[in-house]
User: Fold these one by one.
Assistant:
Number 1:
Amino acid sequence: MGTSDYILVFNGFELQYIILTVLLFLLLCVSALVSGSETAFFSLSPANINEIRKRPSAANQAILKLLSMQDYLLATVLIANNLVNICIVLLSSYILSGIVTFGGAPIWEFLIKTVVVTFLLLLFGEIMPKIFAAYNSLRFVRMVSVPLLGLKDLFKPFSYVLIRAGSLVSETMARKRADISMDELSNAIEITDHQTDEEKQMLSGIVSFVNTEVEEIMRPRVDVVALDETVDYEEVKRTIISSGFSRIPVYRESLDHILGVLYVKDMIPYIGRDSGFGWQRFLRTPYFVPEHKKINDLLEEFQANKVHMAIVVDEYGSTVGLVSLEDILEEIVGEISDESDTDESFYKKIDDHTYIFEGKTHLNDFERAVDLDEDYFRDERGGAESVAGLMLEIKGDFLKKGESVTSHGIQFTVESLEGRRIDQVKVVLPA
């Protein structure tokens, strides 16, 4: 009867296989320790950690050091565990091939070398150690901390690669989830029937808040009320009264050289002083921000630095505008009016299809006022931020009083000019 007639033939143990079997058993013990250490370290309670800190020893110091580098701890455990398990599988397959001859039934070779070995590895190298470690976490970590600290140093280059790769994936997925959430929120706001128009506008402002840049909400340079450092105190008082602002930038020679900000409240005790009063010594340090800063970041900076106004500069350091805390809040809650504001708005409605807008009106405000979708003029606006800027983009040149341009069926006509600047625009919507 040939060998092939038997399912299994036991060839007996040679010395090398006895040695390899002992090595296999040791590797299984290592696998159990490494697997259990992951559960043990991450099962430590605050009370356990306090006890470790109170009792200095080599093992406890190693535990604290590993816990302070949890990313490297986890990466070390994963690398060591996988390496040991691979060695166990390969070594067990080699031993079985040497001591057992498989006959004419290949299914038995598959079952023993793969299924049985995998089951034993999971049971003794993974499941049982993790259960034990969960109930004896403090005892377990003290047993493995010093060897694991050595493995951490040994595998540090590989751990670094794993951590960096994991971080990149996490950041990518986090951005993707954030984008999806923003889209879902926008859609939810559009389809809801229970909010008023004011509530929908506020919710939309919150959703788009994180994507809005300073340049989109700032008061442009041409509309900034500022004081030359050389003017007398009478001129300062006139500017304060006429503007109604509580904070006014002060410049030397031009707006590109802002010296500081004058707070009106600082002048109240000296309101009766004559024109020679040295008001310049009350200037406060100006706060500068780039034009492309996100307004949610700027709001955090305002809160942290306790300021309410910032000078907006471009990449060359030139002043391009001014932004205040009120401007940021208005992006969420809409226009804020106080006792210093006039009753005039930035537009006047003539009839259902005709409006008069200020040329400086931001396109986002214009779109909201006439009930158009956000970024309605995306294809034609170019770098324009205002109604007047949109007209210049469409025309490609300066416009004269009475000239008109048309975009998406909407007619824009120059109603009045201040020099070359478009002051007021007549807007006629399609019927």
Number 2:
Amino acid sequence: MARTVERIEKDLAALEETLGAIAQEFEQVYTDYLQDLSEAVSRQLILATYHLCTQGYPEPFLALSLQQRQDLQQGVRRLANTSSEQLLALLHPPEETTESEVPAPEADLPFPGEEEQDEASDEELPLLPPALPAPMGPEEMMALLTMELPIPEPSSATASDDPLNRLVQWQQRVEEGIVEVLHRLSHGTNRILHQAHVLPHQLPEPVLEVAVKSGMMTEPTPGSPNLINLVIESQSEEKKASDVIRVVAIRLRLPEVEFANPILSNWRSRLRAINGRLSQVGKDYRKNQKERAIAQAELAWRSSWYED
């Protein structure tokens, strides 16, 4: 027997309370995790810089004066100390996530002049009558009648009112933000090393940033976490031949940072456990939403149906 809309609404309300509790637990665990992560990132960033200067490029580092070495070290320390502020800035309660904070997909944004072009095309092109569909055969008609119609997910207009969407988007923003912060710290450190002429200066800094971020043409760096060996091919106009430049650069990677820290591994395990509960509650929530939509549609059908 199908459940009533009132009963489904009660179950949805109970599931929303569960989602609220999961959101609060996520916020607390992420707060502790990001605090410990910032300390680990700061230490490993400095350690990676030490390995790069002493093992990757000892001669250029020795060529620096004492003041230059101290300036380099102070710059790296200052940058590493910003990790806590940058990481904790990612953390906002899920309830504070609004539709305005979620960026619109780039595909929805018109190209420059596209709106004007569309308006002009609407005026110039004549309106054509819609083409009539081809008649269906018996097999096509039977397939259409028996297929299961999908229930669409909540539209973007109502996504901000959906607690499950808000929580999933918030967590996704935090996880993507962590990776972006690690990239900014890596790029900032490589920039300091590049400006100090420790890293090969014939390689332009923008090329170095793109190469490090994408990880293209990398070779393993055994025994040196958060360092990568880049093999970059550059075209020389004078020689009209390609030169291969090998660069050791810093690239903080979250798996390596967590692997070296048991406390972070423990926090990550707790986050996975909460994610598992969220996944199950989310399935139940979507199932009840679908059931409610069907029940409401059936009521609407019966209320508008009348016999001729």
